[in-house]
Design brief:
With about 300 residues, this protein is mainly beta. Helices cover about 5% and strands about 50% of the residues. It contains 1 helix and 19 strands. The longest helix has 18 residues.
């Protein structure tokens, strides 16, 4: 009897995960924090970007939202450096449940198409090249994830050669977490952006993202912190020049996977065997209340 109930619950979950109502992008409230992380011995990240819509316009009788980017360089040691607010593109939802965009002086194009099934390729997303061939993601499975109190359908992906990437996915109403908004808006051409956190204005249910507009040019960043080995297999070590109070590990969409508070220590060890292979964010709160976020790669 217990087996039958378990099977029925599994079937019901799969049904609701695939039959749920489409969740569109909320361009009026949505805030995306994205970044490019430059690989150095301590994985010093190079630039973060905060994307959000500010105002709207009408083009060819359609209402578009104006997507802007505010960028900031955050070295592991040193001071922040900012870039002015920049217009990125015009965006809108359409009746076909797709996000479309319009570059200035060009035609409207499809950015994200959410009419997907297992085996389909995903538009405007790539994981670079393998043997000279673009590594375009393919839908591996479909499930749901709760963001800001609402279930969003999630299309989890694999590489063209069949290798499954547990952390890469396209999420309705959020975007592709490995190539956010389909183009390197925050970085040099050909490089990729990563979705670090998503939140919405005036919604206390959403993740508490560190909004970049609160960081000013010239502010000092946290003291030197070493995180090793990275990539990590089973055990991660953290060393800091000043005591660390809290440490947390998040998925790329902001889900908390590990948290330890009240540490007051300069040396911390974390068992990572329960983490799946993929890319994660690790956030530290130091004794001076400053935060430090880095990329963590599990192999």
């Amino acid at each position: 009897m217990r087996k039958i109930i378990l099977i029925l619950l599994t079937l019901l979950f799969c049904y609701f995960a695939n039959a749920q109502e489409y969740t569109p992008f909320d361009f009026e409230k949505g805030i995306w924090i994205s970044g490019y992380f430059y690989e150095t011995p301590d994985l010093t990240y190079r630039r973060y970007g905060q994307l959000f819509c500010k105002g709207d316009t009408v083009i060819n009788s359609f209402k578009y939202y104006k997507l802007y980017t505010y960028s900031i360089y955050l070295p592991s040691v040193g001071r922040a450096d900012t870039m002015p607010l920049q217009f990125s593109k015009y965006v809108r939802n359409n009746d076909k449940k797709q996000l479309v965009y319009l570059y200035d002086n060009s035609n409207e194009e499809v950015l994200y198409d959410f009419n997907l099934k297992i085996g389909d390729t995903i538009l405007n997303a790539t994981y670079g090249k393998i043997d000279g061939r673009l590594n375009i993601p393919i839908v591996k499975n479909i499930d749901s994830v709760m963001i800001c109190g609402i279930y969003h359908k999630r299309y989890r992906t694999q590489y063209y050669n069949g290798t499954y990437n547990d952390t890469s996915s396209l999420i309705e109403g959020i975007g592709m977490n490995m190539t956010l908004f389909g183009a390197p808006d925050l970085i040099d051409a050909g490089e990729q952006t990563y979705l670090c956190c998503y939140t919405e204005r005036g919604d206390n249910i959403c993740s508490k993202c560190d909004l970049l507009l609160s960081i000013k040019k010239g502010e000092p960043i946290s003291e030197d912190v070493k995180i090793f080995p990275n990539p990590v297999s089973s055990e991660l070590s953290i060393r800091s020049s000043i005591p660390i109070n809290d440490v947390s590990i998040f998925s790329l969409i902001g889900q908390t996977l590990f948290k330890n508070t009240g540490l007051n220590s300069q040396i911390i060890t974390i068992n990572t065997e329960n983490l799946n292979k993929g890319i994660y964010l690790i956030k530290l709160r130091l004794s001076n209340s400053e935060y430090k976020t880095k990329i963590l790669i599990k192999i």
